[in-house]
Each structure stands twice: as structure tokens, then as C-alpha cells.
Amino acid sequence: MAASDHFTLALVSASLALGASVGFAPRALADCTTIQNAKAIAGEVQAFDYFGDAVSIKGTRAIIGSQGDDDRGSFGGSAYAYELVNNAWVKKTKLLAFDGVQNDRFGWSVAIDGNLAIVGSPFHDAAGEDAGTAYIYRYNGSTWLFEAKLVAADTVAWDHFGYGVAISGETVVIGAQLHDFVPEDEEQPIIARAGAAYVFKRDINGTWSQQGKLIASNVKADAFFGTNVAIDGDFVVVAAQSELGGGAAYAYKRTGATWAQEARLVRVIPTAATASARTSTSAEIASSSPRRSTTRRRLPTARSRSSSATPPRAHGALNSDSGRRTHRSKARLGSASTLMAM
């Protein structure tokens, strides 16, 4: 095997091995192939570190989350910054939250753009238990340095602020997928776990401030709005992965300093008439092609789906009453389970 293939193979293998041991499919596995021609991974990665569970790349720089790392206590988390130097991917910095503690899961989400990176820590207790936070880092030409810690103005316990993060220029968007929607009319009930997303922008003085709070127009309980977020310039997309059971996404546009929803995006479900037409067409094709079977093969499901209000990527058990996650203890298996630098 060529040395240039070792990084990608090791990262994929690590995600598969660690994921299989606890029964989940790593979310970021499909993105691992964006990192090529590298020669090494973080030599200290061990079982249950989840190195590679979140990844992001821009140009010749990449950031990789390791939310199970225990330098700040079990599941305290970390992130690794890499850069392509002379056709080899080199680890520049291991990022750790300056105030990180056990179970923060720093590195659960990551994003990078140019000299700026953001790392989500959705179980950090800055504004209450498991309220969450996000950290901004800036590259100074030789290493990555901490710049800001972000918490939304209304973040409270169990919000999971930082569950999803994205960055474009000097604007970031951060999802809080368990945030409760509180109507202005106090007589109206609170909509639990509807979710929210927050936009922060850096001003000319270097200060990061909240620019907007994004809420779905179709607010629903257990929608988990903010599970995934993306931004490009003045446009943001926020996923509400469990809205009405099937999910939805919302597109927003910034005009000046104001963000407004432009569209609600959902998968179009065929009507009865459309389904009937498709069935008729399929039957005609099948009858004219004897080699084609009209029986659809049942494919194995990658993961079971549940109607319960359980957020995605649950690497530990979740208490449905409070959203509190109980963490699997990390087994240290010695050198046999350690991924060594190549």
C-alpha cells in the first residue's frame, strides 16, 4: 500500500472499529475521503476517542474532531488541525478547550474556513447542565490559537448549543437542537426540543457578537432544528432532522445585519395519482423487459429508526425526560488498540 493512502485508510478504519464496538455508524465517515495523500494520524488516539466523527476541510487545512478524547477527563474531547505541507498532511495543533471538563464532548462538531475554525462542545455546562458552547480558533501562521468562546444570549440547560457548527469568513452559525421554543404569549405552551440556530459575527475590533437567532417557521416539538447547519456568505441552511418525523431544512438569507427565512425545504411525497402513474409505467417497462424483476429487493437498514424523541448520533444512552446523556465508560486497551503514527 502506498504511504499516501495510509491516512485515509487509518481514519476510516478507526471510525469503523470504534463505531462497531458501540453499535453506531460514524456520521462523518462519508467525508473522510476528502483527506488524501497524508502520512499520519494523531498518534495518541485510543479506543472510544471517536477521532474523525466530525471533519471539515478548506483548501489545504483540515480539522478533525475527537469528542471522546480524555485529556480533559473522560469524553472531554479534542480537535486536531492538519495542514498540507509538501504534499503531506501534517498535524499542526491539538485543540483543547481551556475550560474543558469530563463529558463536554468538545469536537462533537467542527468547521474551518481559511484562518478560522470553530469547534462545538454541546455538553459543556457554561450556561447550565449540557447547555453547550462553541470555541473559535485562529491560525497565526504557525499554530492555532484560541480567540473566543461563544454562548447564545438565551442558552439554558440541555440546549446542546454547538451540536452543529459552520463557518464562512468571519460569520459562524451554531445549532442548539434541543432548545425549547418559548412563545411571546405566556399563555401558550412551551414547545419542547424544537431547536434553534444562532449566527455570530466578528466585528472590526475583533469581538464576536450574536447577530441573529434562527427559528423554524413551522415550529414543532422534537424537531431538533439545528442538528446540522451550513453557511456560505449570506446564506444559511439549518436542518430540522426530526420535524414531523420525516425532517425538513430551512434556508435563510442575510440582508445587512438581518436574517430572514427564504424557504422551507422538504422531500416531496408523491400523491396517489402520481404513485399510480409510476406504478403503471413500471409495469409497462417490466412487461417489455423479461430480464427485469418487478419485485423490489429489501435492503438492510443502516440503523433502526425510532419515533421517540432521541437526537441523532447518540453515542450514549439518552434520558428522554431531560435530555441528559449517560456516558459509556472508556476502555483503555493498551497499545493493541492505539492507532500509531505511520
Describe the overall structure.
It is a single chain. With 342 residues, the chain is mainly β. The chain has a single domain (3-270, 303-337), classed as Methylamine Dehydrogenase, Chain H (7 Propeller). It is 10% helix and 34% strand. It contains two helices and 18 strands. The strands form five sheets. It has a four-stranded antiparallel beta sheet with strand order 1-2-3-4, covered by helices on one side. The protein has a four-stranded antiparallel beta sheet with strand order 5-6-7-8, with no helix packed on it.
Quote the beta fraction: 25-35%
Question: Helices and strands: which structural class?
Answer: mainly beta
CATH class assignment: Mainly Beta
Overall form: globular
Q: Summarize the biggest pleated sheet.
A: 4 strands, antiparallel
Which residue ranges are poorly predicted, with pLDDT under 50 across at least 5 consecutive positions?
A: 1-36, 280-312, 314-342
CATH superfamily: Integrin alpha, N-terminal
> Mean of the pLDDT scores?
77
Beginning-to-end CA distance, first to last residue: 12 Å
